[in-house]
Amino acid sequence: MRNNIGKYAATIAWPVLVTALILLAWELSVRALGIRSIILPPPSVVFETMAQRHDLLFAHLWPSLYLTVLGFVLSVIGGIVVAVLITYSAIVRKGFYPVIVVSQVIPKISIAPLFIVWFGTGTMSSLLLAFLVAFFPMTINAAMGFESIDEDIHRMARTFMGSRWQIFWKIRMPNALPYIFGGMKISITLAIIGVIVSEFVASQEGIGYLIKLAGGLLDTPLMLAAIVALSISGLALYAIIAAAESWAVYWQPPPEAVGVAGG
Amino acid sequence: MRSAVASPPPGLAPGRARGDGAAIVRITALKKTFGDLEAIRQMSFDVGDGEFLSVLGPSGCGKSTLLMMIAGLIDPTAGEIRVQDAKVAGPRREVGVVFQSPVLLPWRTVLQNVLFPIELLKLPRPQYRRRAMELLRMAKIDEYAGLLPRQLSGGMRQRVAICRALVHDPSILLMDEPFSALDAITRDEMAVELQRIWQANRKTVIFVTHSIREAAFLSDRVVVMGRRPATIIDELAIDLPRPRHIAVTEDETFNRLVRHLRKAIEASHAE
């Protein structure tokens, strides 16, 4: 146990050290070269801005995070439901699944302005875009998880007269869990992107709106403060899912490196 | 629940198909084709209650197909299989199957894996939990009951699979080359263990293997299958006293039986 914690500390120590060095280099070079804050503020100024204007940052962060999480949760539920249909319905598998896979090539972000036309500049557009971009990787991963059960395991369950229902809950579902969590990790990052892009396009609140507003005012420190706050939130959401994964998928040894497919 | 009811008197050799008559599995004019591929041409044999029968044959001769048909997982093309006088038309409760690989569920502990059939068959769990622990003790893996499969060696995992196949107290145990993935030393060990477990439980066993030594060591009777399209080309009773120790494999009697079986298989290849 102590050994595990030691290993964990070692894997954390290096990236933290590298990050600290980058921040230090940034701080020193900005000061040494006399770059103006409007072009690139040093990290100290960014953190100062975050501390001073935390009310403003939080006011815009919450609605964005709320929509992100809501869109994400809907995409997880929707993705799993559709994946079950893909697994059990030949029509859905043969007709819809290929369409879903091919539709992956559409840059869904480009639909954002269309959503504004359809659903207005309110939260509905942001929520739907978050859902849309997060839904596909979720569906595909979950479907892969349900499908990928070993033929021998399936046969074994059949010799013990397992019903479809039993095979789904006792075999397919746990078997799919690692895939579902893999999909969730991709989906949460995409849901954030969906919300932010939608806020860029048209919105009166949200962290995406704040970033755009600060850009318009040439308030670069505020812009960077918002970006950092957003990044930290994204990291926290990802960490929550990763923690839930290692709790739920207890039978798998922790992977050496976490790979995330981008969308 | 009638666990030990049908057991013959202790200390005696279990029954055979020939002699005491009571066949528990009857295979009549069995035929199986997959499209154009003729896997099994024609096959008939009986398995006696409590008998340890090996089906020996070269790789790809249709041994596993035969076993899967007895298990009710595949339908025969023609002919019929009867288990306890009922025609096999699907998986049956009185049959337990051990596959080539252990096929354990990685998210379940050893004990939970052994109890898996109990859940599927909706049998009373507390009662069978005791039985599962007994089986694990008999297989000498009871101390690992709380571990996950990935924490066990290949041999241990296959022992868990054997316990799982026995937990609901089936009358017939079907084993599909269960030790073929294990190393030679573990394999010998497992053969001895299996004999011990079988003697304690008195199940009918149909054991599919391509190992002549394994078949000769374990069985009361060996049925030899020829190459595809398969038929039965030989049948041999193994009258060695039990319990057999691994040293028996060095005896002249044992080696004569092995030679006989080898010749039968070679003859089928020469055709």
Structure in words:
The complex is a heterodimer of chains A (263) and B (271). Chain A has 263 residues and is an all-alpha fold. In chain A, 79% of the residues lie in helices and 0% in strands. Chain A is built from ten helices and no strands. The radius of gyration of chain A is 22 Å and the shape is flat. The C terminus of chain A is likely disordered. The N terminus of chain B is likely disordered. Chain B is globular and about 50 Å long. Chain B has a six-stranded mixed beta sheet, with helices on both faces. Chain B is of the alpha/beta class and 271 residues long. Classes of the chains: A mainly alpha (263), B alpha/beta (271). At the A-B interface, helix 7 and helix 8 of A face strand 6 and helix 3 of B.
List keywords for this structure.
heterodimer; A: 263 residues; mainly alpha; flat; disordered C terminus; B: 271 residues; alpha/beta; six-stranded mixed β-sheet; four-stranded antiparallel β-sheet; 10 strands; globular; disordered N terminus
In sequence order, what are the helices and strands of chain B, one letter per element? EEEHEEEHHHHEHEHEEH
Average pLDDT reading of chain B? 86
Shape of chain A: flat
Average of per-residue pLDDT values of chain A: 90
Determine the fraction of residues in helical runs of chain A and give it as a percent range.
over 70%
Question: In short, what is this structure?
Answer:
The complex is a heterodimer of chains A (263) and B (271). Chain A is mainly α and 263 residues long.
